[in-house]
Amino acid sequence: MPDPQSIPAEFRERLGNVTVAKTVPRLREFLEAGRTILTIGGSTSLAYTTGLPIASALMEKQDGSERPLPREKFYVPGSILQVRVDNTNPLAYGMSEEVDVFFDNSPVFRLRPEAAMLGVKPVAWFESDKPLRSGWAWGQKYLQDGVAVAEAKVGKGRLFLFGPEITFRGQPHGTFKFLFNGIYYGGAEAVKMN
After folding, report:
1. For 91, how many CA atoms within 13 A lie in the half-sphere containing its CB?
2. From 1's CA, which of 93, 116, 139, 179 has a CA 20 to 30 Å away?
3. Tens-of-pLDDT digits for all 194 residues of the chain?
């Protein structure tokens, strides 16, 4: 955190830290009240801290417990990978069935068996064990069937999880639609027809 004296006085009250104990319950209240949160990259950890039925797909079992895959087994630093897209989902409106995403050791999800029943749906996933399109990918086989983009109902609201960097520099020409669809879809209200 910056030195408070380096911040203009009228903005100092806004300094603080995001914490699981204080911030996450407020974000969950925000969602449950019918609001939308879009998360990209590391901020998708909100799914874990709010208790959604999601786990990291990049884990291995060792000595009866799970741990993240070590770099000797999985490492994808700044490469272009291909995902399959459910373009019938409003979050993927206007997108093709396959899209290239910028992946920089990004989060990848595994939906637990109860996920669909609890309103968590995959929107884009790694259909292949060789999704590399450009760059370098060590252990890309671990990505197969991992979820890259997901939508979750939380109370009356929606949480959108974008593991890959959908807004990274010039690459996301094909993935910006996820961001803008999330903004519009998240705020949309159902209209009842007579």
Report:
1. 25
2. 179
3. 788 899 999 998 888 888 889 999 999 999 999 999 999 999 999 999 999 999 999 999 988 899 999 999 999 999 999 999 999 999 999 999 999 999 999 999 999 999 999 999 999 999 999 999 999 999 999 999 999 999 999 999 999 999 999 988 766 578 999 999 999 998 776 556 66
User: What are the DSSP calls for 32-47, one per residue?
Assistant: HTT-EEEEEGGGGGHH
Helices (H), the chain: 23-32, 46-49, 176-187
Quickly tell me which residue has 């990505």 as its tokens.
Answer: 143
Q: Which residue carries 């996301």 as its tokens?
A: 172
Nearest to 183 by CA among 28, 24, 35: 35
Structure tokens at 113: 């068996």
DSSP state of 28: H
Sign of the dihedral through C-alpha 184, 189, 190, 194: negative
Separation of alpha carbons 127 and 146, rounded Å: 8
User: Which sign, positive or negative, has the C-alpha torsion 164, 166, 168, 174?
Assistant: positive
